[in-house]
């Protein structure tokens, strides 16, 4: 199976149902038959501050009026002609269908969905993760100690192991899509680029993902599978350890980076000042030939994951030689979505 700004609005969400009719309902399909069939009851909520923004929309915090629970709402505006809107809704239905079937501590929890009556927007309600993204942590702390990186990486792998077992490739693993709660639990989010893949050797040729973290075979559109997520994990380690994504020492232009990745014969520059086990782990993930990359299960048995890392403040063992500049990566347009 598989691969090894602030607003003040009051909204009512009516949960989608396959028996519902009318434009305000979402009826999702599940081509792989893996999604849960029932959504929770209607939710009345009040929209709060903007907490994130990505290729597919903006994410706001929201307050459940009845329960007082803090949630997150991903608001996606639909624009363009009728055919464009239909395509966008179809894509969102696929994301919703996929989200409904995911239940894991390292994956953000889906609650419910609403399509506006005028068909101009869709709201996806999810659990609120108070720590924000790992990217936001890096913007505040610049880089992470190897011990922290190890803790986060283990959880990223556990989330991906669950996805790959269910035949799902995420296709946009990066620090901006990794959320952290107040207890240090990492949760994979933003499944707008994700896809069911029924067979471990099935190869998808669409261009999905973000250039700095994208695997060479994805950039080349030569076909990709779960191994593309493995490459992205290696890229995330570079980002967490240095504060910057791979290739940013060469170019800060996303289109240029896409060309670099498509034509590279070598992995991106690895950070110095980290343990041999960490270097070995990144090297395993960043094999240009996807056939040489390990599976998630194999990565979970590596020394970097299994061996204890001792933090010794006086020695500052995390003496990484960073790239020339730690910049706010959120200011750069980096996500590419092409069919």
Blueprint (SSEs and pairs):
Blueprint: E1 10-13, E2 43-54, E3 57-64, E4 70-77, H1 82-100, E5 110-115, E6 121-127, H2 134-141, H3 146-165, E7 168-169, E8 178-180, E9 186-188, E10 195-196, E11 207-209, H4 216-220, H5 227-242, H6 254-263, H7 276-285, H8 296-299, H9 303-306, E12 336-338
Antiparallel strand pairs: 1-2, 2-3, 3-4, 4-6, 5-6, 7-10, 8-9, 11-12
What does this structure look like?
The protein has 339 residues and is of the alpha+beta class. The protein folds into two domains: 10-127, Phosphorylase Kinase, domain 1 (2-Layer Sandwich); 134-338, Transferase(Phosphotransferase), domain 1, CATH 1.10.510. 28% of the residues lie in helices and 18% in strands. It has nine helices and twelve strands. It has helices at residues 82-100, 134-141, 146-165, 216-220, 227-242, 254-263, 276-285, 296-299, 303-306, and strands at residues 10-13, 43-54, 57-64, 70-77, 110-115, 121-127, 168-169, 178-180, 186-188, 195-196, 207-209, 336-338. The strands form four sheets. Strands 1-2-3-4-6-5 form a six-stranded antiparallel β-sheet, covered by helices on one side. Strand 5 (110-115) and strand 6 form a beta hairpin. Helix 3 runs antiparallel to helix 5 and helix 5 runs antiparallel to helix 7 (276-285). The two termini are 25 Å apart.
